[in-house]
Structures
1.
Amino acid sequence: MIDDDAIYMDAALEEARKAMALDEVPIGAVVVKDGTIISRAFNRREIDHDPAGHAEFIALREASQVLGAWRLSGCCVYVTLEPCLMCAGLMYQARVDRCVYGAADPKAGALGSLYRINEDERLNHTFEVTSGVRAQESATLLSSFFAEKRSRRNRALVK
């Protein structure tokens, strides 16, 4: 499974690069069922003017459409950054089996950093989480994006 995790995370990283090319925060996600990617997405908050335009939120919604069901049992979500509270909650609501993420998010992560929604026994569903898959590549994309944003802002201020 570890080798498969790296392969699917590579697909999520491809999605993150698409976001970066569009000046969106470079986060990508894919949903996998039975060894097949059934949906792909990247962050679209700026493009769509949508506070719910997170990569994993979009990918989960698309996966539900593909499967014709809101329950995504048997699915694994691969995402380049640890999901926030909203997206972790959606994974719980969708009944996913597993989430694999790249970089941890100490400021907003809900699957290990700040919260552990996936293993909260007060809820009626728990799911497995694997962290740190392609973490360095995921973190580098994010830090490069924000460094470039700061650089552009500073250049604009100098003018």
2.
Amino acid sequence: MLDQPTSSITNKANAAVLVSLDFNTGMHEERLEELKQLVVSDKLVILGVVEGKCYRPNPKTFVGSGKVDEIALMLEQTGASLVVFNHDLSPGQQRNLSLRFQCQVVDRTSLILDIFAQRAKSHEGKLQVELAQLEHLATRLVRGWTHLERQKGGIGLRGPGETQLETDRRLIGKRVKLLKEKLAALQRQRKVQRRSRQRANVMSVSIVGYTNAGKSTLFNKLTRADAYAADQLFATLDTTTRKLYIPEQGDVVISDTVGFIRDLPHTLVAAFRATLEETVQADILLHVVDANNPNRDEQIKEVNKLLQEIGADTIPQIVVFNKIDLSNLLASTEGYERNEYGRISRIRLSAKTGEGLAYVRHALAEVKIKDPNEFSKESTYKKVMSGCVTAYL
């Protein structure tokens, strides 16, 4: 069996120069701040930031020649040995920049994959991250996987007329196939568990939201679990499921899921599809929002966009504005709001202090009183939820 690919970033010096260009699409400062959070989450040290405005990427180096020289100068001045782009680079662009700077160049997708590789703890999580890594790196394969040949001795491994690159691709293809088979088996196991819950008429609740919105903290408060929670991006990668008892209504099953982020790599979405099926199959979603984040409206849109991508956009939501202890939402006289059908649709709480937590239990009790399927038939309900922006606060 081939070894799991190790982190390609943290094996080298952890000093980095960041590059973030404004393509006049808006939210540049916010995107740069998010990149800094990702870099810190990957245990890297930021020694410099190169910014600029651009109309279109350079096909060879993504940035123009002047900006390439500026980055090279900053590398020389700071002594950094890593360049992190806040954009996705093509294999050719990444190779050309690495040759020019004589150091490793990492794009946004590679950075997120590296964070996932560090955070995955469960067997399934590690399989999913490895699959995403292999599928992403296979597109950038230029004699970068010769260690795969060495693990099997080399002699007799290569087929007739095969180049080293073809051999590496074939080995990666075999590993990808094996990983997909293992994940498919785990997916079937999850389906059996879900059918068992459905026969017992147990309502399924999934906690979703932008990364670092406080999902795991809320999950722990509700279920008295000890899921890992930290003030960092992608603290949770492995889905955790617990039973939650609702007084006078019985048990519901609640799941804590991986956080979303804008421009989440498609390889990750595909690899984590088995895990995200807990979200797709849920009866209701608790959409956790960081109420203290000035970009919460944009984050709500990004989460809803990703929910649509995985086919979970038709599932009813209860939007939970978390971290009110740090925001101005305390001015509100009520801790929750109802939609036009009289159901609780928005809740304000602090998962850290526990303030407003009772509203979540009350809202779930209201859903469980009726058949969740009937709840989801309220066709305009999702429109009310998707319109949950600052104006409603």
3.
Amino acid sequence: MPTPTRPRLPLADRAPGPGTAASSRPPRVDWRLRFAVLALVWGFSFLLIKVGTQAFAPFHVTFGRLLFGTAVLAVAMAVRRAGLPRGARTWGHLAVAAFFLNALPFSLFAYAELTIPSTLAGICNATSPLWGMALSLVALSEDRPTRRRVAGLGLGFLGVLTVLGAWQGFSGIDAAGTAMALGASLSYPIGWIYVRRTLAGRTESHLSLTGAQLMLATAQLAVVTPLFAGPPAAFPLLPLLAVVALGALGTGMAMLLQYGIVAEVGPTTGQMVTYFIPVIATAAGVTLLDEQLTWNTPVGALIVLAGAALTQSRSTPRASRQR
């Protein structure tokens, strides 16, 4: 989930360095197939959250997700001999990134799905590029507004209002749950901007930084979960398997996939997975969880995705268009 946009890996804008897998050997599986698997895994993550919260508290689901995801990355780091980053300052920045890119959004989505369908959570996740564009205009001086990007921002939020049925007074929509899902989507670009400002140019590999980031997020939930949730009363098999899959596949394996795709074809192509996640999440929720779908949900989702695509586009300079 992204990180999408689920979540961008730290330093995703930098070309793979000496410590990355992309520089040591060619990938065995075509990036298009890995891209499809990533979209499926992140799309189904919202269904897995819903199944997990049927038996476990939201913090339990989030802690389990981070724990199993960290285990996968720890194994990958051991296999590739990727050491942990050094320096207290770096770890401090990674702790902030872990909060905004993992601990906070994962927890908010888990709490949101107590009261809203997984389909709506998946669509809310697609608003992350819209939040990112709005924030980057303020926080990043190199990101200049263009008519196309501003139009995409307005179109995207019009799509959000369509999904929520604004003309009906938002009837049938849980306001708190929806706000938490939108807050989770807002948390991602906050984390991305922070990483871009503080960790860009590091010499460590993406795997090393991402592994450390996920370890810190797991530690954060290890402190919070006992205080607010206590131990689980039982461990039903299906919800437990959902949490394990959410962590091992939807977090650990997904981060490795995204890490490899971005290193091979670049962040622009890699982040396009964001546009497939709500489609898969909606299909999974309707077919497997029997969630109800009204006309405004898919129509609004398409509008959101169109707006998000516009915010990520770049206008061709006028001089080059005249040639």
